[in-house]
Amino acid sequence: MTATDTTTEAALVHDVHWKIDYRVKLGRAWSRFMRGLQKQELWGTRCESCQRSYVPAQDYCEACYEKITNWVQLEPTGTLRAATIVYQGFEGGPEAPYVVGAVEIDGTHSLLMHFIGGVDLSDSDAARAVLRDGLRVRAVWSDERTAAITDIKHFAVEQA
Amino acid sequence: MKDHAVISGVGFTSATSPRRQPLSKDELCRQAADLALEHAGVKRSDIDTVIIGDIAGFEASSVSALTIAPFLGLPEYTNIIPISTGGTSGGHLANQAAALVRAGYAERVLCIAPNTFDGPVDLQAVINTNSPMIMEQPLGMGAVHMGAFFPGAYQQRYGVTDDQLMAVGAKNRRHADHNPFAHITSSLADEHAQRMVSTPLRLGMVCPVSSGAIALVVTAESLAVEESPNPLVRITGASSISDGYLGGKRRDFSKFEVVEHLARKVYREAGIIDARRDLDVLELFVPYAPMEYLLQEAFLICGWGEAPGLLEEGATSHGGDIPTNLSGGPLCANPGVAGQMAPIAHVALQLMGQSPTQQAEGAKRGLAHSTGGTFFQFHTATIMERVSA
Ligand SMILES: [Zn+2]
After folding, report:
1. Which domains can be identified in chain B, with CATH numbers?
2. pTM of the full predicted structure?
């Protein structure tokens, strides 16, 4: 069932590098959602038949497959449900440490993933104690906005 | 149903670190295929269908199944089926082979699970490209960061400590000490194991990147009963499930909600009524140690939040009543698609009474699981049962 190779000569390894650019269409619903972010507005959609709401906005309901035409503007505040402090990132990613979290936007049922800012990460245990389910957060807008998810810079802990 | 499907042969190459791997992908796959055919007691010319796993976009190749197939020396009329479902490709190989056999489309299927993670220079960067582009890809997450959300939420809900999370890693590495195909064992130094990667995941809770290949032969039971030198291991349940695409669709990160649905579906098919009583061995795809708890609970082995207690009482170690990941699982070897099919291969050998790892004495029924995709979108489950006396 097993076999081992006894080759002693080192096997060759060649470097392969691909650099490929793509263009991806966002479609109508996500285009409208992103244009909202550019204007510092957070938009979701709500299904008329089952009342489920979606952020990011989408134009059909995953639960009942009805078309959704009901757009609702939301306050960019919410509650953190889960998060991780990244100490080891990756090539081309943000510089660690940083925090990524899942935020339940007020008045919606779905979670929006985003960076969580404004937390002191110098003490890992103290930071973990802050980044708990129930933490209130508010979107901080980027100065330069390009109709992208990063038009929200991050969600920051809301001061009481 | 025309026939049952049985796993009649298993072939493993050793798993090693990618840097130490002298063989190409084709060479590894051929070696695994030769071993599986020999174990099943069949010839290459007996194979009518080959199913080869792939992970689109993870390697410097396109549809590598089609470049591997010509190296396998199979007859010219062999059907070639590539399967590319990301982290569940490996789990799907045997499940699809069983479906083809049961449907009467195939009689002897060779399943090839290649090494698939050992090419990328920075695997987390590659996995980030697999994250939902536009909406979540810009947010700095590779697989390990996505994997960290679940144990964080689980800890908070059930008051589980970091040490309890690490205990799964330590248990699985102890198991791996007895697995000749493992890449990481209990020799992992504690100072490495404790290094924080992405809270609450430390290095000792995170799988390595390994290189290796695995092959299986899945045969129609009516043929295997005549030709197989091994006890017959029937695939009695095989299914898969998908969650939403965006990470935010998970809603409750303290559990794998869709896995509970998958469990009920596959248990009904296999006639499993009480999972802890009816199953003798589990191999769960656990690239991040705490997932073992969440998966045991979703597979109805115990109640929500109770899995750490099972480990502490020894139930999930060798000698316990529900030994889990006797191979060590992906924490000890994760060679991509091969790592995903490894749970099926290890359970099959346990049920044959031929485990290369510690044998679960008298094991009759087992569960194998695989998962992958953004925030573990996809899962597969395979129930196997020894039908020979
Ligand atoms: Zn609806």
Report:
1. 5-120+211-233 (3.40.47.10), 141-208+236-386 (3.40.47.10)
2. 0.95
